[in-house]
Amino acid sequence: MPSVAPFAETVGLSIVVPVYRGAATVGTLVAALSELRPAGGIEIVLVNDGSPDNSGEVCRALAETATVPLTYVEHARNFGEHNAVMSGLRVARGAYVITMDDDLQNPPEEVLKLYDHARLGGFDVVYTRYAVKEHEGWRNLGSRFANGVADLLIDKPKGLYLSSFRCMSALVVREITRYAGPYPYIDGLIMQVTQRIDSIEVRHLKRAEGHSNYTLRRLVRLWLNLATNFSLLPVRLAVFAGVAMGVLGVIAALFVIAEALTGDPPSGWASTMTVTLLISGVQFLILGVLGEYVGRAFLSANGTPQGVVREVVRARPAMPRVEDAA
Known about the structure:
Strand order of the largest sheet: 7-5-6-4-1-2-3-8
Number of helices: 10
Distance between the termini: 33 Å
Radius of gyration: 25 Å
Largest sheet: 8 strands, mixed
Number of strands: 8
Order of helices and strands: EHEHEHEHEHEHHEHHHE
Strand content: 15-25%
Helix content: 40-55%
């Protein structure tokens, strides 16, 4: 049986994989990753984020037969991909940590390319970009929209593609895991820590099994995390909208007064209703934005957990394969 005692030593590279409906693919992914020989050695961290299939059983079996150091983290319920990644980062021991999905769309052999680029180039974070993305059309559109919004809301290099297949140094991992709020957004946290960021192009494959776990609802929630946790721009836009409507109201009032003084005032029902509905719409927009901020602040102050870890299983292989540092 695998040991639950923590490892004292570090490794060169940790790979954190959030697992959700990944029972059919995670075994293949772990087998391919276990064949890699990164400088300093490798460990794999699997985080079962309350998956409704038998991913937990598959991950436990992988821990029992692991040929490289493998840590299995089990969430008590589903908290979301970024929350699962945060739980994995907290137990990772690598000098560098790569995060990747469990769907095999990111070829495991690209891991060494990403790791070496970060390690040899002295970068804190290296993102990946794709010449051709094999996601469904609506998912690609959603990703472009999210990246466009990120250009406006967070301090990131212009045009940098924010991919979940990324490599981070231990420095960045240590700093971003200090965040304990219930709505983590990994990329927003990264941009608050460092500007030593680069990107490389890698291959992107078609999904091996099933369909994407990202629904439109999940993408909207991700955008809200970005918009309300790491930027005041929505509030500022609401303020500007309020000021603009106030100025428009003053101008309209002057026209009404002038018309009343120079002629017979019109019935004005249509114009009155138009202005009333327009102002009401802006007011509700402002209240909605403020309500989102207040609600999230309340949940954070109320101690809503970022993730509840039921169990951590550390599997130490009989003969771990650790390479000498290059």
